[in-house]
Design brief:
Radius of gyration: 41 Å
Largest sheet: none
Number of domains: 1
Structural class: mainly alpha
């Protein structure tokens, strides 16, 4: 047998002997080592999911900000509608009662508040 063949044969036997010894001494470690590639793949998959969730969270925060602005605008419009409704009531009731002084006063107040 050539010299290189002896080294390869001895190296192979030493590796097999080392594996067998490791499996006898720590079987769970050897099983865990064989799981490493699968676990690495799983971690990469979970990291992708985390990135997706972070993008979704960012989009949702932006949408919440937009909705908060829309709610503020709705509140302003609602307040304006209430003011106009109050004015219409102040004008129509005195007009129906033919109370010209109250009508004139309501119109002056509205013009002053409008400007």
């Amino acid at each position: 047998m050539p010299a290189g063949g002896i080294v390869v044969g001895v190296t192979g036997r030493l590796r097999a002997w080392g594996r067998a010894g490791a499996e006898r001494l720590a079987p769970t470690v050897m099983a865990s080592i064989s799981e490493v590639p699968r676990l690495v793949g799983r971690v990469a998959h979970l990291e992708g999911q985390v990135r997706d969730l972070e993008r979704t969270r960012s989009r949702l925060r932006e949408r919440i900000s937009e909705l908060e602005l829309e709610v503020q605008e709705c509140r302003r419009l609602q307040t304006r509608v209430a003011e106009v409704t109050d004015f219409v009531v102040e004008v129509l009731i005195p007009a129906a009662d033919r109370d010209d002084e109250r009508l004139r006063h309501a119109l002056e107040t509205y013009e002053r508040d409008l400007l």
